[in-house]
Amino acid sequence: MAKHRLIRALTPGTIRAALGATVLASAAFGAVAPAHADTPEQVGPASQSSVVQTAQHAAANQRVNVTAQQVLNVARAQIGTSENAAGGGTKFQKWYATSQRAMETVKRDGGAPTEYLNAAWCSMFVSWVGEQTGARPQVGWDAYTVEHARWFAANHRWGSTPKPGAVVFFSWSGSKSIDDINHVGFVVKDNGDGTISTIEGNTGNGRVEARVRPTSQVVGYGYPNYKA
């Protein structure tokens, strides 16, 4: 297994969990409704889109009653969790595959929810931590790192300063383009020497690990609106 195996080869028509569509449909993970709640009933394509987008944007920018440290504590408690030989078996993949969000991203990217069970899971890990802590409206949820980052950018919570609890997006090429994102995790701290300490899923040999990364590999940061 290659180091930092973050993008798996998928057969044509399968979920593009790491290579997915470029449609900015991912605002759906900011919904105020409880986890896995159904989207509003259709009231007409244009009106539904307007209402849903407005509600999602408001939710994504509403402060949650969760601190950055609480999110990092839950993420840290997962260190050592490992995938199986098929690239699956984690609770993060199992949770995502059965979530309402999986149905939404399947509609966007194609495939079937069961394909998430063995798909690249770094973004699913971040999403799971958000769900477990009650910070999901701020952390977002997706299986595709590029769309996850676009959601932060669309909600004006995207920047270049590392902060504890921020969601950090990487490109191994050093690109600063969201389209080139390969990986995602949480910032633990800025080390002040051109590196950041992080907690990431699906890194190394498919594990949750604490890492130190050069900021030259960072595309940008998503900023959840945590409780102070």
Automatic annotation (TrEMBL):
<feature type="domain" description="Peptidase C51">
    <location>
        <begin position="97"/>
        <end position="223"/>
    </location>
</feature>
<dbReference type="InterPro" id="IPR038765">
    <property type="entry name" value="Papain-like_cys_pep_sf"/>
</dbReference>
<keyword id="KW-0732">Signal</keyword>
<protein>
    <recommendedName>
        <fullName>Peptidase C51 domain-containing protein</fullName>
    </recommendedName>
</protein>
<dbReference type="Pfam" id="PF05257">
    <property type="entry name" value="CHAP"/>
</dbReference>
<feature type="signal peptide">
    <location>
        <begin position="1"/>
        <end position="37"/>
    </location>
</feature>
<dbReference type="InterPro" id="IPR007921">
    <property type="entry name" value="CHAP_dom"/>
</dbReference>
